[in-house]
Amino acid sequence: MVFQRYGLSPLIVLTSMSAHWNLIRQLTKREIASRYRGSLLGMLWAFLHPMVMLTVYTLVFRGAFGMRWGQEGESALDFGLLLFSGLIVHALFAESIHRAPYLIVNHSNYVKKIVFPLEILAWTSLGSALFHALISALVLIAFYGFLHHDLHWTMLLVPLLLLPLSLVTIGISWFLASAGVFVRDIGQASGPLTTVMLFLSPVFYPAGAFPEAYRILLYANPLTFLITQAQDVLIWGRPPSWIGIGLYCAGSYLIAWCGLLWFQKTRKAFADVL
């Protein structure tokens, strides 16, 4: 019904979510709950995991290796916080991308037996990743406040960075969810691809430290800009590049729109393959 009404309009990205909002919310809650069902500590793991990882990163990379970012005013423990802020951005993207090629394949009963808005499976996957990203961001902010006895007002802008990241992530997820039905090898390639993107982004090093001759590879990575912006608002207390964020939002919305159009164009053939 949504696609019959809006056709090729760019509004279909928003209407596909708003029209099925209650279903997306229920499926996301069920998915998050199922991840921790049966464990002794349950949902506490959502907080414990980022706390443990942040502590390990801080102790290993700064304490054992003595690594520094090279910024003025950097404290002894800021390297771990900088690293973790970049990993939050990458983890949100990677979690959705890893699962995207299997979204339709693992829910083939939705294709064959019932009338179901298949495009919302990508929203559900993204919702779960967003939940864990926000938990990790809260843990990071708490650690920063504990270490520095102060918080930046720019930390309130984190949701602003998650908007374009979510759009580009769901756009690519729709492409991969469709392609994964026809080419099963895509699921095997998503892991190495996101690993390459991790090391070709300023997570473990500042962008200026990357060899200038190959720096074009760094800036070709769609995560590079958002990782540097996350480090600015969370750690350095700098406001983001408003022009950059605006342009990124426009570009990421275009990717989401094209991804959804491709998904709807190819979904008619899903039942023939599965």
Radius of gyration: 20 Å
Largest sheet: none
Any idea how many domains?
Answer: 1
Approximately how much beta-strand content do the residues carry? Answer: under 5%
Q: Give the terminus-to-terminus CA distance.
A: 24 Å
Average residue pLDDT:
87
Your description of this structure?
The protein has about 270 residues and is mainly alpha-helical. The chain has one domain (about 25-65, about 80-274). The protein is about 70% helix and about 0% strand. α4 (about 45-65) packs across α7 (about 120-150), α5 runs antiparallel to α7 (about 120-150) and α5 runs antiparallel to α9. The radius of gyration is 20 Å and the shape is globular. The two termini are about 25 Å apart. The mean pLDDT is about 85.
Give the helices and strands, then pairings:
Layout: H1 2-6, H2 12-18, H3 21-36, H4 45-64, H5 78-99, H6 108-112, H7 120-148, H8 158-182, H9 185-199, H10 215-220, H11 222-236, H12 242-266, H13 270-273
Summary, kept brief:
This protein has 274 residues and is mainly alpha-helical. The protein has one domain.
Q: Characteristics of this structure?
A:
single chain; 274 residues; mainly alpha; globular
